Amino acid sequence: MEGRATLDVKLQVEYMSFSAHADAKGIMQLIRMAEPRNMLLVHGEAVKMEFLKGKIEQEFSIDCYMPANGETATVTTNPSVPVDISLNLLKREMALGGPLPDPKKPRTMHGTLIMKENSLKLVSSEQALKELGLNEHQLRFTCRVQLQDPHSDNDTLHRIYTHLKSVLKGYTIQHLPDGTVMVESIVIKVSSSAEDANTKVLLLSWSYQDEDLGSFLSTLLKKGLPSGLC
Fold first, then answer.
1. N or C of the chain: less Cβ packing under 10 Å?
2. For the whole model, what pTM was predicted?
3. What's the half-sphere exposure (Cβ side, CA atoms, 13 Å) at 43?
4. In what residue span(s) does the Zn-dependent metallo-hydrolase RNA specificity domain sit (predicted)?
5. Are 191 and 203 in contact (CB under 8 A)?
């Protein structure tokens, strides 16, 4: 007596009524209406199926398979996972001037993905912390940049401040009494190299919210300071 195995097939099957003897024109019309992501041709003359396969791939830009009897066809899929988005997160995206999500025009949205009762929801990090009862921890990135500048550490820092004020419009830039320059959450410190006083070591530190700005500043300062800065 042969044993039986139960397979969990995660597949939705829909029945569509159409002629089993449709010609190529009928099959092309069906594909145009159904908009499948993949096609399998399983019945017909090999030469005509090969011609139809090429026509389908060319006209609809989808993969088409014609496996022989007993042959296994492997179809690569990109599963679609439904995710709810909180109203507050959408409002924040609108306030930043970004367009609302469009299924036909995918775009990146920043948030925290949480799972509750087998459903996924994208919310702001603040809302996620509140719903999950978690405490927020600050994560900061650091980067070291070397540049050549014959001035004192304080003068170099002031020159950096002047340079950033001229480049970054609309950002909060401060030259603080503790000997640092601050751009939003980014802190910049200057020290001289032990081997060469003209070689300055800049230490940049920023929070994850300003990761893009921190990367931009590190790239900018690696290019050095313009001549003529006071």
1. N
2. 0.46
3. 5
4. 7-67
5. yes
Look up residue 133 and give its DSSP letter: T
Average pLDDT of the segment spanning 176-188: 91
pLDDT tens figures, 28-57: 888 898 888 899 988 888 898 899 999 999
Closest to 187 in 3D by CA, of 160, 162, 167: 160
CA distances from 118 to 7, 52, 110 (A): 22, 42, 21
- Using CA atoms, how far apart are residues 69 and 131, in angstroms rounded to an integer? 54
21 vs 13, 18, 170, CA distance in Å?
21, 9, 67
Residues 6 or more apart in contact with residue 230 via CB below 8 angstroms: 158, 159, 162
- Cα–Cα dist 148/199, whole Å: 5
CB neighbour burial string for 74-83, b if at least 16 within 10 angstroms, e if fewer: eeeeeeeeee
Mean pLDDT, all residues of the chain: 84
Domains and CATH numbers, the chain: 24-65 (no CATH), 82-96+109-137 (no CATH), 140-223 (3.30.310.80)
Interatomic CA distance for residues 177 and 185, integer angstroms: 16
Please tell me the distance from the alpha carbon of residue 36 to that of residue 13, in angstroms, as a whole number: 13
Q: Over range 184-193, report the average pLDDT.
A: 90
Count of all residues that appear for the chain in the document: 230
State the residue for tokens 């296994």.
72
Among residues 73, 229, 87, the alpha carbon closest in space to that of 162 is found at 229
